[in-house]
Specification:
By secondary structure, the protein is α/β, with parallel strands linked by helices. It has two domains: 143 residues, Nucleotidyltransferase, domain 5 (2-Layer Sandwich); 188 residues, ATPase, nucleotide binding domain (Nucleotidyltransferase, domain 5, 2-Layer Sandwich), CATH 3.30.420. The chain is 38% helix and 18% strand. The strands form two sheets. It has an eight-stranded mixed beta sheet, with helices on both faces. Strands 11-10-9-12-13 form a five-stranded mixed beta sheet, sandwiched between helices. Helix 1 crosses helix 3, helix 10 crosses helix 11 and helix 11 crosses helix 13. It starts with a strand and ends with a helix. It binds adenosine monophosphate. Adenosine monophosphate binds next to helix 10 and helix 12.
Length: 398
């Protein structure tokens, strides 16, 4: 089955067409600056020697982007048919424990979660509405970042706040990056040669956003992100865990508004805020090599807190077969993996430095020694393939 996977931001639309049989990515592209004076796009297919780049008319929206995309995939040169559309939806609250067809009831249920993800959900819904208009005959499926974490039990998902906040307003921990954690857990089971239902792992998705999850016998039991993707580890521009008292202090002592604080914690903190150089790990590693102390400290805090998160997740599961590294940093930054694993030796994780340097090449991504009681594995995430597979499961294979 060929699935068009769509990931909509408020001014962007990213897509791929995935053949679920082979996992191949048949076409892909990005529309950027939608709604502005100069929307742009870049689309690619393996059948074309070069990417197709261009501009859309001023103020062009997701609908025009989908028109352009539909023409591109159906064009004589690309000629890819589409059987269904899978949409990434960031927040499904407690309403969605798995992917589902986006009918009117499902759309209403996603709208009800908008206040929990005001930047993401309305954009995701815009993509679904536009796609329904552009592809009225195709099934439209929503795949939720939060769904994989819906197996968390109250001990893991409740905040120690007045219980009314949960009961009346749904304030609890939800977790994110579900498609990535689920995908790499499945791959880990394959690599370990065990059924997923007998595999327990800690997955660390380390990209610009970072989260980790504890997965016991294939079921997610805890994760580091919470009501929003701000909780947990240090990220590119997000602070992760801080004393909530800081927020009141910023308001009372510095006169900052809720919006100022929101922007600061989400966009100006993390690696960027600490280093005052960049949110990008590559840039910070380069700066560290050149002796920049702020970059060194930012990265040091990142790995220290990462190791603390993994160690605390380890306390939530009885056995652990492996620690998985994924995401741009997890897959590519050997130093982050080494520094984290050195701190986790007491958990039975023993790094093989040579294997770590080449990401366990030739050995299924395994970067721990043969004697390591808990394996460490580098696995390239593939959220698009996971969304395509879940979409296929919902619409049924042809
Ligand atoms: P993602 O959000 O998954 O695309 O990951 C983005 C993060 O991965 C950024 O901090 C990048 O600096 C980091 N990253 C990507 N490639 C490398 C690399 N080769 N070495 C270190 N960090 C990398």
């Amino acid at each position: 089955m060929n699935i068009l996977v769509i990931n909509c931001g408020s001014s962007s639309l990213k897509f791929s067409v995935i053949d679920t049989l082979t996992g191949a990515d048949l076409a892909r592209g990005l529309f950027d600056k939608l709604g502005s004076d100069s929307p742009k796009y870049k689309m690619e297919s393996d059948k074309l020697a070069e990417a197709v780049k261009g501009d859309l008319p001023a103020k062009a929206s997701h609908k025009e982007a989908l028109n352009t995309l539909a023409e591109f995939v159906a064009s004589e040169d690309v000629n890819v048919s589409i059987d269904a559309v899978g949409h990434r939806v960031v927040h499904g609250g407690e309403a969605f424990t798995s992917a589902c067809v986006m009918d009117e009831a499902a759309i209403k249920a996603v709208e009800a979660c908008n206040s929990l993800a005001p930047l993401h959900n309305p954009a995701n819904l815009l993509g679904i509405e536009s796609s329904k208009q552009n592809f009225p005959d195709l099934p439209q499926v929503g795949v939720f970042d939060t769904a994989f974490h819906q197996t968390l039990q109250p001990e893991a998902y409740l905040y120690p706040l007045p219980i009314e906040l949960y009961k009346k307003h749904g304030i609890r921990r939800y977790g994110f990056h579900g498609s990535s954690h689920k995908y790499v857990a499945g791959e880990a089971a394959r690599i370990l040669g065990k059924p997923l239902s007998e595999t327990s792992v800690i997955t660390a998705h380390l990209g610009n956003g970072c989260s980790a999850a504890a997965i016991e016998n294939g079921v997610c039991v805890d994760t580091t992100m919470g009501l929003t993707p701000l909780e947990g580890m240090v990220m590119g521009t997000r602070c992760g865990d801080i004393d909530p008292g800081i927020i009141f202090h910023l308001k009372r002592a510095l006169g900052m508004t809720a919006d100022d604080i929101d922007v600061m914690l989400n966009k100006k903190s993390g690696l960027l805020g600490l280093s005052d150089i960049s949110n990008d790990m590559r840039t910070l590693r380069e700066a560290s090599t050149e002796g920049n102390e702020a970059a060194k400290l930012a990265v040091g805090i990142f790995t220290r807190r990462l190791a603390k998160s993994i160690a605390s997740l380890r306390a939530t599961i009885e056995d652990c077969d492996a620690l998985i590294f994924t995401g741009g940093i997890g897959e590519n930054d050997a130093l982050t993996r080494a520094e984290t694993m050195q701190r986790l030796a007491h958990l039975g994780i023993e790094i093989d430095p040579e294997a770590n340097k080449n990401r366990g090449k030739g050995n299924d991504g395994i970067i721990s020694t043969k004697n390591s009681s808990v394996k460490a594995i580098v696995i390239q995430t593939n959220e698009e393939l996971m969304i395509a597979r879940e979409t296929e499961q919902i619409v049924g294979s042809k």
